[in-house]
Amino acid sequence: MARVLTGIQSSGEPHLGNLLGAILPALELAEQHQESAFFFIADLHSLTSRKDAQSLQKSTYEVAAAWLACGLNTEKDLLYRQSDIPEVTELMWYLACFTPYGQLKKAHAFKEKSKNLGQVNAGLFTYPVLMAADILLYDAEIVPVGKDQKQHLEITRDLASRINHFFNESIFIIPEPHIREQVMTIPGIDGRKMSKTYNNYINVFWDEQRLRKQVFRIVTAPTPLEAPKDPDKCTVFHLYSLVATAEETEELRKKYLNGGFGFKDAKELLFGKILERFKEAREKYRYFIENPKEIDKIFQQSAERAREVAVKVLNRLRKALGFPPR
Ligand code: TYM
Questions:
Q1: Which residues contact 293 (CB under 8 A, 6 or more apart)?
Q2: Pocket flag, ligand 1, residue 193 (CB < 6 Å)
Q3: CATH number of the domain that 239 lies in?
Q4: Among 63, 79, 84, 65, which Cα is nearest to 14's?
Q5: Is residue 326 part of a domain?
Q6: What is the pLDDT along the chain (326 residues), one digit of tens a residue?
């Protein structure tokens, strides 16, 4: 028995990087474990960068619909909004009082923006502490994430050990990150990490026309059609290999190496493969986006179940701190 947990921000549309780097591996792990997995929309984290209620809400439903479309089992696993669990912000405060300033100063989300301190709010600075609270509050053991979250997991593990050591008792479980080599950094259409920030993402739930247009925007080398091409230096090939079977990928590799096969042809293949691979998910996604009340019901039921665990774990720390139980 082991609890799988992970979260995705509601700061934009769910993209292929989120799907391949987090959602699909997380759902696969959840299936392998009997215990309910905890999946959530990190809407409080999104506030560090966005304050617009409408777009935050829209994105919350889009991310939730993506989880459900990809097959989240609502009978067993949870899908909740981080902001529906008041215990998480309470725990964050306790954890913050155990977090050295120097550790947060080195955290990469802050470091990247620290050249422009005027744009940094305290929420962004303490982002990793809230993330630690997200994980420790539910006794999570396995946390599937992309490579960009590795440092945050290290901070979480440090904090849990520090507190256990301080009270000389096992208050928190030390979680293990689960980062799959093959999908740890999915490239975007410009070859950099696929990210909402870089606006270089592909959303497989877009309508066909928009999706095709974005696939055709993927940057490729100026190699002439007849010339052989290096598949390992091509984003189109890389993305194809992540959505196609091993045999299909091998076939495409040969076409690249033989020459006489253009990037346009490769993009057409990638577009078709995305449609094929996500056909069922695209239909389910549309259903959930058109029926947000179903998502609300799942949010509500999941939050109740999550809070049952949260209160118990929080009380372990409250007791050690000398506060009465909730
Ligand atoms: P977020 O919302 O930026 O991304 C959600 C998940 O998607 C992964 N990911 C990628 N993986 C591979 N290639 C990419 N190009 C790519 N882009 C995104 C991320 O690594 C992540 O796993 N801080 C987190 C959200 C969070 C969280 C948590 C995660 C809040 N609390 C507790 C796990 C546990 C974040 O900003 O993810």
A1: none
A2: yes
A3: 1.10.240.10
A4: 63
A5: no
A6: 799 999 999 999 999 999 999 999 999 999 999 999 999 999 999 999 999 999 999 999 999 999 999 999 999 999 999 999 999 999 999 999 999 999 999 998 888 888 888 889 999 999 999 999 999 999 999 999 988 999 999 999 999 999 999 999 999 999 999 998 887 899 999 999 999 989 999 999 999 999 999 999 999 999 999 999 999 999 999 999 999 999 999 999 999 999 999 999 999 999 999 999 999 999 999 999 999 999 999 999 999 999 999 999 999 999 999 999 99
Both 301 and 256 in a single domain? no
Residue of the CA atom closest to atom 26 of ligand 1: 7
Pocket of ligand 1 contains residue 149 by CB under 6 Å: yes
Are residues 155 and 81 part of one domain? yes
Residue 226's domain comprises: 208-277
The conformation of residue 6, written as its DSSP 8-state character, comes to: E
Q: Are 282 and 204 in contact (CB under 8 A)?
A: yes
Backbone angles phi, psi at 264, to 5 degrees: -65, -40
Residues 146 and 58 reside in one and the same domain: yes
The response to whether residue 12 sits with its C-beta less than 6 Å from ligand 1 reads no
Q: For residue 177, report the distance from its CA to the centre of ligand 1, in Å.
A: 12
Ligand 1 mean position, distance from CA 324 (Å): 35
Please check whether residues 178 and 251 belong to one and the same domain: no
